[in-house]
Every structure is written in C-alpha cells, then in structure tokens.
Amino acid sequence: xxxxxxxxxxxxxxxxxxxxxxxxxxxxxxxxxxxxxxxxxxxxxxxxxxxxxxxxxxxxxxxxxxxxxxxxxxxxxxxxxxxxxxxxxxxxxxxxxxxxxxxxxxxxxxxxxxxxxxxxxxxxxxxxxxxxxxxxxxxxxxxxxxxxxxxxxxxxxxxxxxxxxxxxxxxxxxxxxxxxxxxxxxxxxxxxxxxxxxxxxxxxxxxxxxxxxxxxxxxxxxxxxxxxxxxxxxxxxxxxxxxxxxxxxxxxxxxxxxxxxxxxxxxxxxxx
Length: 272
Description:
MetI-like fold, 14 helices, 0% strand, globular
C-alpha cells in the first residue's frame, strides 16, 4: 500500500529525469555525428559513432580556453568562499549596532542587475590597465558572487548551536580560532553549495567575458565556442562535442558533492 502511494512520485521523478536528461543525451549523440550525418538525421540518437569531432576540438586549441575558464572560475570561487565565510561569521554570530544594515547591504547586491554595470566595469578595467586580461574578469566575478554566498552562509551559520562556541571558548579558543576550528568544519555543506552554485554560473558566464576580453589567448570557454561558427554555417556536431567536454567538470563536481549541496540548501545540517 505504501509503495502504491509512491507511484505518482516515481512517475513525476521519471518525467523530470527525461526532461532534464534528454538534452544531454541529444548533445552527446550529436557530437558523434558528422556534419552531413547530422543534416540527414538531426533527431536520431546514437546512429553514428564518429569521434573525429573530439579530435578536432583539441586540434583547434580549445584546451587553452578550458584552462583559462578553470583557473578563473576556481580562483574566483575560492576567494568568494573565504570572504563570504569571514563576512557571514560576525553577521550571524555576533551582535553589534550595524549588524542588520550590513547584512541588508550585502543582500541588496542580489537585486542589482549585474549587466547594468558593464560600462562602468569596462571603463574601470581600462583605467586600471587590466583590460583584456583575466584579472579584469576576476573582480566582477567575485563581487557579483558574494551577495548570494553571504546569504547562504549566514542562514546556515545561524543554525549552528551556540554551545559549540561556548565549549571552544572554555578550551581557550579566540574568536579567530573558533571560526577556523569549529565553524568552518561544520560549514562544509553550505560551502559546497556556494562552490557549486557559483562555479556553474562563472563557468558559463559570457557577457562580461565578451566585453572585457578581446585577444584569443585570453578567451574563456563561452567565447572560445565561437570558433565553431563560420561565416555562413555552424559546425553543430563539433560544437556539441566541445559542449560535452566542457560540461564534464560541472557534472563531476556536482556528482562528488551532491549530498553536501543538498544539506547546504536545506538551511543547515545542525539544529540548535
């Protein structure tokens, strides 16, 4: 009887799996076709297994774009995690006069349309002499990832029992020691949520990269995919092969951290 009640849930889950999984399956299948084979049967699945598209991806030097995106995304996310954790600790665990206004100031960044800042950021990068470098992207990536990160970590930290801090203080820990030795280990699920959420966003970011990067050697993956666009045609199988390869880091990262991400999104694994 209990199993019968779960049948609708399983059907809904199966339906969601089809809707979310089919695009990736179609992308993988198309990447294994030739250009002519794609136009002959564009919607067929796995009727061809031609790996020449993957060889072409590496021959085109797109691995350099992969390195740029990986270094930039990982660096930005690690800085965001550290800064957001250090900002969230006093906002959630300490009482002071400007606590609430500072928290609201951080949260207000979530309401700011980031593309409205393109021209000021462009002008700033030129005046600082970092235009057309990865440094020009690092600042905006960190700044626009901080509000949601501070929000997630602050809400999570508020659920950590005060008794943990009191016990650490009895043992002689300073506030800094409590943060590093007590709070951060408990904060792991929320930190993984912040990592995955921001990494996916920065890995796929296009507009700021388009505006702030001009030379081919500094391109990130979204810009590098333009190499598959000709003047009058698009190499769709080759593009799908590149997209398949560039999707793997996100899939691998989420696969190994999915349990901690779910805990982080639930608002905290420790209840007071």
